[in-house]
């Protein structure tokens, strides 16, 4: 009887929402602007009541509610999943809540079978991390069934499950996301949604959103262009923010902006969930991001002080441009540029203390940086500013701080002789005359630079696994520091520049080591073991998030 009463109540609510024209218009209209002329946009007009497909849906819902529970109704809709056509998505306010590629039933079955076969192969052959992926699947299913219990489990076992929910396992999840996809989480905006985003944001049910993590999937960790599958990184990062910072999980939103992919494998994959076209670039790309930003801040105008946009894993060429474009208009930051820099500075300052030196000696540290992408340049900018402030925050101080860095990319040491140098890397290009006295020149290899400079810190942000080879690590033995620091910050684990075992065994047990992915502590035999530090930008949010909101508000008012 209680089930029948619940069904009757739901029927009345559905009739009120879908059949009452006054309610229909009231709940779905909003004001936007077309040039200088304000207009009212109605997502549904009265003619939808005469649409045979729409009436069929209402009739089906009514019949379902008479004989089944609400869970059965939810199951009816979830059975469709990515098979909803674009017309159906528009009618049911699902546009943006599902990946953009419409899948047929046959494709859905093929995707499931491919995933099942992959599991069988993993179970038989035993890959390097089957247990981690299996744990992720179990946790993800728990998240689908009971979100409260999911976060309780994550908070109580954060040390064990953080590497499962986020890096390194999330990299494997993103690579296989089209096969792992079971139900939508977050929102999807695509290049085909241009002109529709202002209405799409109203499809999200939450009236208040405090934090959004958005990615375009162009540079996921060190794995490259994963397209729409990159949304896994946004989902995983928000899960850690909820667990570590106590953010309300009902007020966070992972977002994927699908502007295509240049990954040829995905372009040819019939089971890929995203747009199968090459990436937008130039003004077309910026136009999509502009429309998205405007739409989201229009949707939640009353929580604008609390809303934070985290740009996650964007290509280097766009990371700085988008940060500069929006930072004075919207409350946002780029996690690769600023988040990585935050934890790196904490590690660099901690290394000075661990070396037994006063903090004021930080500007004297010689730092070799492997990698000149968005993360590498972000760390360099932050470290340079920190050094300059310690030296008086003058132009002379900034120039003096610049001389403490040697930046090596895929072409070798960056100097002012480099042709077509990246403008963001230009401030850190060494003067040829300066490095000439050290026996170095343009394009010098990493091992040559380490051997000649004898750095206090070797910082890896290259996403090239094993870059810190035996020769490079042996060269670090010549460091002028009594406790040289080696930071292999690239992730996931396979992209780490070296392992802690390699660093300790080759350089010595006196080093300071930290990584961007978790490793087990190293057993050095006669010693009890050396604890391995783990860099992760999510760690800054357990205390950082609460003060960040206040600082962003003050900054936005130009008080600091």
3D structure, described in words:
The protein is an alpha/beta fold. It has 24 helices and 14 strands. The protein has helices spanning 2-19, 21-28, 52-67, 70-78, 86-91, 105-125, 130-145, 147-156, 158-165, 169-175, 177-180, 197-200, 231-245, 264-267, 282-299, 316-326, 335-354, 374-390, 395-402, 432-436, 446-453, 470-475, 500-507, 541-556, and strands at 29-34, 37-42, 187-190, 211-215, 252-258, 308-311, 332-334, 367-370, 405-409, 412-413, 457-460, 485-488, 512-515, 533-534. Helix 23 links the parallel strand 12 and strand 13. Helix 8 packs across helix 13 (231-245), helix 10 (169-175) packs antiparallel against helix 13 and helix 18 packs across helix 19. The radius of gyration is 26 Å and the shape is globular.
Question: How would you describe this structure in keywords?
Answer:
560 residues, alpha/beta, five-stranded parallel sheet, 14 strands, 47% helix, 11% strand, disordered N terminus, disordered C terminus
Percent of residues in helical segments?
40-55%
Strands side by side in the biggest sheet: 10-9-8-11-12-13-14
What are the segments in which pLDDT stays under 50 over at least 5 consecutive residues?
A: 1-10, 17-56, 65-78, 123-128, 303-310, 526-531, 537-560
The main β sheet shows up as:
7 strands, mixed
Distance between the termini: 62 Å
Mean pLDDT: 76
Q: Tell me, what's the shape? A: globular
Radius of gyration: 26 Å
* Class based on secondary structure composition and strand pairing: alpha/beta
**How large a portion of the residues is in β-strands, by DSSP E?**
5-15%
Count of discrete alpha- or pi-helical segments spanning 4 or more residues:
24
Strand elements, count:
14
Subunit arrangement of the protein: single chain
């Amino acid at each position: 009887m209680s089930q029948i009463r619940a069904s009757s109540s739901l029927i009345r609510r559905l009739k009120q929402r879908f059949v009452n024209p006054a309610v229909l218009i009231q709940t779905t209209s909003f004001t936007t602007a077309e040039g200088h002329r304000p207009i009212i946009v109605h997502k549904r007009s009265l003619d939808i009541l005469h649409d045979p497909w729409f009436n069929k849906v209402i009739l089906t819902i009514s019949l379902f509610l008479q004989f089944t529970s609400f869970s059965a109704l939810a199951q009816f809709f979830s059975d469709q999943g990515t098979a909803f056509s674009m017309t159906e998505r528009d009618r049911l306010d699902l546009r943006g809540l599902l990946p953009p590629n419409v899948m047929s039933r046959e494709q859905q079955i093929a995707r499931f079978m491919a995933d099942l076969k992959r599991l069988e192969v993993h179970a038989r052959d035993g890959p390097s991390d089957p247990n981690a992926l299996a744990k992720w699947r179990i946790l993800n299913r728990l998240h689908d069934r009971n979100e409260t219990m999911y976060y309780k489990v994550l908070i109580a076992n954060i040390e064990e499950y953080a590497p499962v929910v986020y890096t390194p396992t999330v990299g494997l999840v993103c690579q296989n996301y089209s096969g792992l996809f079971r139900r939508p989480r977050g929102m999807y905006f695509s290049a085909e949604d241009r002109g529709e985003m202002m209405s799409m944001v109203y499809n999200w049910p939450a009236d208040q959103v405090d934090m959004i993590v958005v990615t375009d999937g162009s540079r996921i960790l060190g794995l490259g262009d994963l397209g729409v599958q990159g949304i896994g990184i946004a989902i995983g990062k928000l899960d850690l923010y909820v667990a570590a910072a106590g953010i309300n999980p009902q007020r966070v939103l992972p977002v994927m902006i699908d502007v295509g992919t240049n990954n040829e494998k995905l372009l040819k994959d019939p089971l890929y969930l995203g747009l199968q076209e090459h990436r937008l670039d130039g003004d077309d790309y910026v136009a999509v991001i502009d429309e998205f930003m405007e739409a989201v801040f229009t949707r939640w105008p009353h929580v604008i002080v609390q809303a934070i946009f985290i740009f996650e894993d964007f290509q280097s060429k766009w990371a700085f441009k988008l940060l500069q474009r929006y930072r004075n208009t919207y409350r946002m930051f780029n996690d690769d540029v600023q988040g990585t820099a935050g934890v790196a500075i904490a590690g660099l300052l901690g290394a000075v203390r661990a070396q037994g030196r006063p903090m004021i000696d930080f500007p004297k540290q010689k730092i070799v940086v492997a990698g000149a992408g968005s993360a590498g340049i972000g760390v360099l900018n932050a470290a340079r500013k920190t050094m300059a402030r310690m030296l008086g925050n003058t132009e002379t101080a900034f120039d003096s701080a610049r001389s403490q860095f040697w930046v090596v990319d895929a072409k070798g040491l960056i100097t002012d002789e480099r042709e077509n140098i990246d403008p963001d890397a230009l401030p850190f290009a060494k003067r040829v005359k300066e490095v000439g006295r050290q026996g170095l020149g343009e394009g010098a290899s990493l091992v040559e630079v380490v051997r000649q400079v004898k750095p206090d810190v070797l910082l890896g942000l290259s996403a090239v696994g094993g870059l810190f080879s035996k020769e490079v690590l042996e060269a670090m033995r010549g460091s002028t520091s009594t406790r040289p620091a080696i930071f292999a910050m690239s992730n996931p684990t396979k992209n780490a520049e070296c392992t802690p075992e390699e660093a300790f065994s080759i350089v010595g047990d006196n080093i300071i080591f930290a990584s961007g992915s978790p490793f087990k502590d190293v057993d050095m035999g006669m010693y009890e073991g050396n604890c391995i530090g783990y860099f992760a930008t999510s760690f800054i949010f357990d205390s950082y998030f609460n003060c960040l909101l206040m600082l962003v508000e003050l900054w936005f008012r130009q008080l600091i």
